[in-house]
Amino acid sequence: MRTQATMRITDLQYHIVAVPLREEEVWAFGRRSNLEAVILELMTDEGLVGLGEAGGYPTVEIVAAVIASLKPLVIGENPFNVERLLKRMYILGAWHHVKSSSPGIAGIEMACWDIIGQACGQPIANLLGGRVADEVEYFYYVGQRSPSEMASDADRGRRLGFRTFYVKVGSDDAKLDIARVAAVRDGGGSEARIRVDANEAWSTGGAVSVLREMEKFGLELAEQPISGSNLREMAYLRSQIRTPLLANESAWTRYAQLEVIRESAADVIAIDNQMDGGLLNMKRSAGLCEAAGLPVLKHSLGELGVAMCAGAQLLSTCPNVLYASQSYASLLADDVVEGSDVLRYQNGKLVVPTDPGIGVQLDREKLERYEELYLRLRKTIDNGIIPSQPKWPKL
Ligand SMILES: [Mg+2]
Question: Quick check: 165 and 195 in contact, CB under 8 A?
Fold first, then answer.
């Protein structure tokens, strides 16, 4: 083992990338054609380099600015001291009241775990509790298109072995949303677990009405149908539908999750190292929900191979992961890690890497290619997320 007590971080470098999607991603309030993320490298005085990834939320430029602002607080620190580093970044960095700082902080924290794992010769799952599973299950994201196209795509996911199908709803046309769910049932088959996500688009009354219609086709989970800012309304909605309610936007950080639990506002909670502010905080979130008797799954802002594998490492250590987690594999055209067949899932499951650290290496040629794509796109109006009309709630 390396000299844990004396190792120091010597540099932090980051790359903004845009990786194309196979098809445009569309949700209640926006759409995008590329997945933008920040890939980080944390250098140490012992030659180890840790990889991290931060989702571009709310924009990749804001995340990069957060990371740049944290560089002076990180350099000179020992990467093993994750708790101390989190406090430095959140409190000394004065980011503790700002939710959008969490992906940047999480990217740096992820790179620390990659260094610790490499130094110890262990996959990070072994440093965060050890495995309760060797594989982690993910859903198949059926992109929002016409019902017939979505039925074909769900059929593709079923043939690839996925069991859970994710559908964005909350469009301006509730009848079309219902038709899309019916189409995914057709394509995915009678055993398909269909999860709908309205991204807070509906009013409570609208959500009750449209979810009851969708329930005729069988739903696995209803993800954040209404505003996450009103937990009593979520608790009421829970009482009015048969489908378990999944808290997402209402449950960013463990402090928000605690309120969801107190208000009995959800049946399942989405945890996420990006929004929880690191893998260690995500583990804390899973533990908090476990104590409340609630299952969890992992949310994703849209992830490439570094974040996917880091998330899988941690999910493999959480006994209360009872539902498929989020994956962008079905939408992504490529990745930035070596050997990156983006659909490298077996029956919807990802085998958790056993190599030291996160267990992935960057493909330098692809990293450069998608850095260049980001710089090209930045000059056009198609860069990043294109918002839809600001009507809220929509139903
Ligand atoms: Mg969601």
Answer: yes
